[in-house]
Every structure is written in structure tokens, then in C-alpha cells.
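Purpose: get a first structural picture of the assembly so the mutagenesis plan has something to point at.
Setup: two entries, given in the order below. No constraints added.
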Amino acid sequence: MQLSREALIRAYRQMKTIRLFEERLHDEIALGEIAGFTHLYAGQEACAVGVCEHLGPTDYIISTHRGHGHCIAKGCDVMAMMKEIYGSRDGLCKGKGGSMHIADMNVGMLGANGIVGAGAPIAVGAGITAKSNGTVSIAFSGDGACNQGTTFEAMNMAVVLKLPVIFVFENNHYSEHTGEAYAVGAESMTARSAAFGMKAIKANGIDFFSVYEAMRELIDYCKAGNGPASIELDCERFYGHFEGDPQRYRGPGELDRIREERDCLKTFRTKVTEAKLLEGAELDRVDAEVTDLIDRAVAEAKQADRPTPQDVLQDVYISY
Amino acid sequence: MAIKMIRDVIRDTIDAEMARDDSLIMLGEDIVGGNGAPGGPEAIGGIWGTSGGLWAKYGADRVIDTPISESAIIGAAAGAALTGKRAIAEIMFADFIGVCMDQIWNQVAKFRYMFGGKTTCPLVIRMPYGAGFNAAPQHSQVIHQFVTAMPGLKVVMPSTPADAKGLLTQAIRDDDPVIFLEHKALYGVKGEVPDGDYVIPFGHARQVTQGDDITILATGMMVGFAEKAAAQLAQDGIGCDILDLRTTSPLDEEAILDSVERTGRLLIVDEAPPRCSFATDLSALVAQKAFASLKAPIDMVTAPHSPVPFARELESAYLPSPDKIVASAVKLMSYRRG
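Result (C-alpha cells, whole complex):
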């Protein structure tokens, strides 16, 4: 652990922001406040933050349908994200994208994506730019997207072109409602990645420090011109595939158990307080600040300007 | 003015734009060719001869030979275009759009809109298309009818060397994604090409012939067929007003409606099958906006509702032809209201 106190607090704040953002959405969606499909990221915070704490605005990431965590971790504005999810014209995408399409090129966030597996090829293209800039491109995918042909094409092309692309596979063990044990035919996602001819490692996705250290190694490796790499992060999804999912595929007591034993925020707090790197009170203060931020984000989003019918035809093209 | 073939115009235009703009890259299968093979790179230079010499001139970081992975080609070009590059992706045959449709339809076409207008995707997807080579059902098709239906894409179909230069230059410099369709049977067509910087804005049809009796709308290889038919019809005193639409999205509605209001008759020639097609779209446009001008029902000469067949006799029967256009024109001229 080589992180400064400021860096540790920042990492915790990012993870806590994602957690409270998602828990609040869970409540608001149940009240019928939010339209459309929403896929919550809670449980996987250490993955997004452990990766993105290494990145700057000219490093690129592309995300998935479960994208809120990646957006927050990469620096998208939380207030504008909340407005987007509420469909406001002041949202990050002017109410045109919603939960599944939040993007902000200014922070190198190339979009959440509603099509499972569509992101990896786009990350390869961002890798072409990253190669010329000396930065890296990250493709977040899940154990569902790892079975898409687009992901295979992207992995092979990144190897052939020797691009600085890191394929981050967050293995939450469910592709929608189907278990990883059934749907991933290979011995493991890591073994499959290695078969493409790239460096492939695993890390503990519920431990921020495990993800952070492993990513440091991979980013150095890619920036040194060695081509792409892959990492499989073992993690947990605290909610269903989508909000409203009855989760009948879960085992008895599974949700209680993973929340109790495999919570990355609890893991972080225990580690840093036991090692006396941070005081519990410091973390409590962050909790209070983040709670206030999310309260304000929701309150503002509910009051924010709505789009008008005239907005439908805006931004289809730059010129036509 | 120089006399050039369309294939050379395409190559030379890409060359000029790559020289002009360091951010422009190009990706595709065998656009270099020979990589990893005993013959060595540049053994091919693109199977259509549209990228010869570019790899040697601009290097492997800008002229990127890819595996046969159409989704990754379009995705990679799109990712580069989102992050500050300009990109040209070549899909070797337009028919292969089937294996990369998600990247074109759900990604490239929608980025700007679903990201709230905060991004550009300056990407040209070049696709050789069309029948005439007995290349059978999976290597002979037109696809403009699909991509024209997709908001967010611009669609270009040049039919002359000069238009190929002006429209490709515009496509590369455009900040919106452009589908640039090159008819395989027209690559060898020669014609005069303006020297120097030459840009044709999208959405402007080209007046091919002027006439007062029938408006003929066409694109790509159908333009030449319509010209042949018009020459024959002129001998019988029938004047054809041929418009080469050049871009199907955006569409030059004004030129179409002006012409039909003058001639009162409309004949649409389209290489696509007739159902839910570009021809039916044009027909609906004129029926809605110039109905009062029509002296006869709108007619269409199109491919039939079948895959493109292989055998010479079958493919000839399948394609529109100058004779079919003449027959349709004669029918239109002899129409009398009951």
C-alpha cells in the first residue's frame, strides 16, 4: 500500500459515491420516479475505482449497460449524471441517452453501452489514439460480454496491432440471469484471454488494493509497448440484472451473504482502519458528505428542466 | 482536368487527404495485403486497387491492415474517430454489413445523438457494392436502402470520377459519419476530374440530362443505364430529365420536386429489390408533395424481390437495364386517364 492519505480518501469517496448513487436510484425507481431500464453497479465499486484511479482525462474507458460506476470513477459530473437518468435536458446527454448511454468525452469516458459486447471494438480504436498519445484505453466488460464475438475480434485485433488496450472483465458471476459456470465455456475468462496471446491476470474485485496494484502493473506493461493485456476481477452484483428483476436465480441467503462477507466498501474500511492508515471518523465524514451530495443530486434532478418536443430533432447530425 | 478511372480517383483522394491531415487513418482487410506472407506488405494494395502505395507512404500506424473482423474494423475506426482521429474504414464488400451492423447502426449512427450532441464521429465507411460480376447472392448486393433509413448516417453513391473526388473529399472532411458506396462495376469508368481541392457538398443532385417529358431518378450504376435509355428515347422525341441523386441521405428533395412539377411523370431506377426500398421512399415523397403535377402513375424499374442470382442469364434478368427503362418510359408516355 503506497497510497497517500489523500489518495485513500479519494478512492473511498469515489466508491462511496457510486454505492449511494446506486442505492438511492434503487429507492427512487421503486417509487416510479425514473423511466426506462436501469442496471445498478453496487457491489462492484472496487473494480471501477481500482482501475480509474490510475487514469487521466486522455486515458479512455468504454463501459457497459451497467455503467454508472465507471462514469463516476472516470470523473463524470454526478449532478449531471443524475439529471440524465431523470431525463432532464440539463442531463449529461440532454436526456437523449439515459442510464445506458452516459458519456463524457471531456473526461475520456466513451460511453456506457446498451449492447452487450459492443464496447471492446471501440476501445481498440481508442487504443489507436492512445498509442499515439502515450496513454491507455480500457474496455470494461462483464462475464456476459466476454462471450460475444465482438469481444473476441477486439482482443485479437488489439494483439495484432499491439495496442495499449486493457480488457477489464468484471466477473460478477451472472450474465443477466444465467450463471458464469454455464455460459463461459472456457476453463476461465483469464485462460481464454491468454489464449489470444496477451498478458492475462486475475485480481480480487472486492478488494480495491488488489485491483489497484494489478492495474498499475498492467498499465506500465501496456505503456511500455508490449501490446494489450486482460484482467479478470472476481466481484459481486448486489442488485438484479435490471431494477425490477426478482432474482429467482439466486441461491438461498446469497444476497445477504455477499452483502455481509463480500462488500468492497466494508473490506476497504477494515483494511485502512486496521492498518491505521485512516481513522474511522474520517471515513464517516466522507459518508456524510457523499450522502449530502446524492441528496442534492436527486433534489436538483427532480426540479431540472424537461426537454421539449423540439429537442427530438436536435443533434441527429452536426449539419444535414 | 485529368482523365482518371474511379478506382484511381478514390486512391488519389485518400492520398491527398492523408497528406493534408495527419489525424486521418485508414483501416480494412487487405488494404495493404501481404502482411505476414512471403510476398510481403503491399503485395495487394487493396483488392479494388483503391489503396495502393498508401502504406509505404504513410506507415502502418495510419494505413492499418486488419484481420477479417468487420465488427472490430468499424468499432476501431469509430473509437479512433471519437478520440480525435479521422478514420476511413473499408468493408471489402457491402454485403458484409451483416456482420458489423451493430457497430454501424447502434453505435456510430447514434453516438452524437445519445451523447447529447457533445461528440463527433468523423468516420467514412467505404463499401464496394452492387451486381454485374456474377458474384452471386452474398457479394453482389446494394445496401443503400438500409443505411438511408438510419438517422445519424449520411449516404453517398457517386457515379462519375469527378463526383467520386468531390464527394469523397467532403465525406472525409465531414464531422458526421458517412457511408460511402462505390459501385464495383464503375471502378473502371473513366472521366474528367477537376484538379486541386474539389469538394461537392452533400444533398445536391446532379442534372445528367434535361428533358420535359419524364423525370428519371437514379444512383450509381443506374445513372449510366438511364443515360443510355434516354439517348434511345430522344430518338423518339421523348425528353428525359435525369437526376443523379448522388447522396440518398441527405436527399435533394427540391431538385426532385422541381423536376416532377415540370415533367409530370416520374420513373425511378433502383438496383435494390422493390419492397420498403429507396425507390418506394422516393415514390412516396412525390405522391405526397407533387401529386397534383402527376400526369401518370409513378413507375419504378428495380430488381425483383429475390436474392441476386449467379448465372449470367439470371443476373442480367435480375438487374434493371436500359431496355427496361425504355419500356417503362414508353408506358408512362402512353398513359391516358380512364
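Chain B has two domains: 2-193, 206-333.
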